Amino acid sequence: MLNEATIQTIKSTVPVLEVHGTAITTRFYQLLFTNHPELLNIFNHANQKQGRQQTALANVVYAAALHIDKLESILPVVKGIAHKHRSLGVRAEHYPIVGENLLAAIKDVLGDAATDEIMGAWAEAYGVIADVFINVEAEMYRESEEQAGGWADYRAFRVVRKVRESDVITSFYLVPQDGRALALYQPGQYVSIKVNIPGDSYTHIRQYSLSDAPGQSYYRISVKREDAIGDHPAGKVSVFLHEHIEEGGELLLTAPAGDFVLDTDDARPLVLMSGGVGLTPMISMLNTVTASNPQRQVTFIHAARNGQVHALRDHVEELARLHPQLKVYWCYEQPSQADEAAAAHHHTGFIDRHWLSEVLPGVDAGFYYCGPTPFMKAIHGALLDCGVQEKDIHFEFFGPSQSLA
């Protein structure tokens, strides 16, 4: 436990962290990868280049300082990060390395303002915060390995089917090379995939949502090919999977993880909303609820640029034919002439509060959504404007968390 003097010293740095947090975390990653380049085998290089990881870490450091006297209040945030850490292979021995470089970054950025008192308090506080993460993650590692069909670290899987779902999304059906049982998972969870790309010095790890209901003889991921657009570079792993991983190929997976999961005990109407490839966890949830609770009212809303990039449409419409309680709506930003001719969508442009209020089953429901950040911000604001309570809203970012304010 931290003494009162240390707590007050940490709290006194909150305004400084609010201003300089991202500068500190940017410097932290520079130091970390210079001193320990082997950790580039764990971290997502793209998130580093785009600054998303730095901003996410700055937010966590800020929250930890703000709530240093009641860290239990940020336990949900800790658990979400811990799921990602467990899936990536972050271990207890990494925390002293992180602490050393984080403290050095604070000193570098704050200069003379980082007094001995402040640095000593942060060294002590970091130890307490690290212990929280280490203990939570240790339990997750244990549960992952000891569950039926579970495993530690990475396990080899074989691609038994590769299916083109749209112009940009392809599904990979994966079974264990060892032929042993598969661990169950909760709808909405993801797996980490590690690949070695020829010519690259470090391995690449990416997390992909499982896009089918649990209990199958396979895991399925549905991957969007991220091509270069303007200053945004192509996605190394997604392009590699699309171009080089064929049926019969091998991929290394960690066991399923994630805290964005469907509440299967909730009997109220369910609203699933997605933008682009954000439909992958929504499909897992949809497949699960139509199979296990076929009487539950479900509204499924998906936004895409047009029909050519709309994946798994036929599958969802077939479910709607089989389950009258399932209502389906398509929103196309830029429908093609073929889309217009076939009346293939229900709304043109972006999802807005007015249209959303017309198709929702009401506000007393469970709301789940995933997609690009602008989509998520729009949906979040629209739901609140419609009168939905925060406690009924559930969402997940692809990559480091960001603000939806």
Automatic annotation (TrEMBL):
Instruction: Explain how, and how many, cofactor molecules are bound.
Output: Binds 1 heme b (iron(II)-protoporphyrin IX) group per subunit. Binds 1 FAD per subunit.
Site (Involved in heme-bound ligand stabilization and O-O bond activation): give the residues.
Answer: 29
Query: Origin, by domain of life?
Result: Bacteria
**An example Gene Ontology molecular-function term:** nitric oxide dioxygenase NAD(P)H activity
Q: Which InterPro entries match?
A: FAD-bd_FR_type, Flavoprot_Pyr_Nucl_cyt_Rdtase, FNR_nucleotide-bd, Globin, Globin-like_sf, Globin/Proto, Hmp, OxRdtase_FAD/NAD-bd
Q: Which residues bind FAD?
A: 190, 206-209, 397-400
Q: Where is this region: Reductase?
A: 149-405
EC code:
1.14.12.17
What residue stretches are annotated with the FAD-binding FR-type domain?
Answer: 152-263
- Cofactor(s) listed in the protein's UniProt record: heme b; FAD
Q: Which residues bind NADP(+)?
A: 276-281
- Keyword Nucleus tagged: no
Positions bound to heme b: 85
Give the reactions, separated by semicolons, that this protein catalyses. Answer: 2 nitric oxide + NADH + 2 O2 = 2 nitrate + NAD(+) + H(+); 2 nitric oxide + NADPH + 2 O2 = 2 nitrate + NADP(+) + H(+)
Q: Does the keyword Methyltransferase apply?
A: no
Uppermost EC category = oxidoreductase
Entry annotation: catalytic residues: 95, 137
Domain Globin, residue spans: 1-138
The UniProt keyword set, sorted, is: Detoxification, FAD, Flavoprotein, Heme, Iron, Metal-binding, NAD, NADP, Oxidoreductase, Oxygen transport, Transport
**Which residue positions does UniProt flag as site: Influences the redox potential of the prosthetic heme and FAD groups?**
84, 396
**Domain topic, free-text comment:** Consists of two distinct domains; an N-terminal heme-containing oxygen-binding domain and a C-terminal reductase domain with binding sites for FAD and NAD(P)H.
- Function, as annotated: Is involved in NO detoxification in an aerobic process, termed nitric oxide dioxygenase (NOD) reaction that utilizes O(2) and NAD(P)H to convert NO to nitrate, which protects the bacterium from various noxious nitrogen compounds. Therefore, plays a central role in the inducible response to nitrosative stress.
Q: Which family does it belong to?
A: Belongs to the globin family. Two-domain flavohemoproteins subfamily.
Output this protein's name: Flavohemoprotein
State the species of origin.
Paenibacillus oenotherae
Designated gene of the protein: hmpA
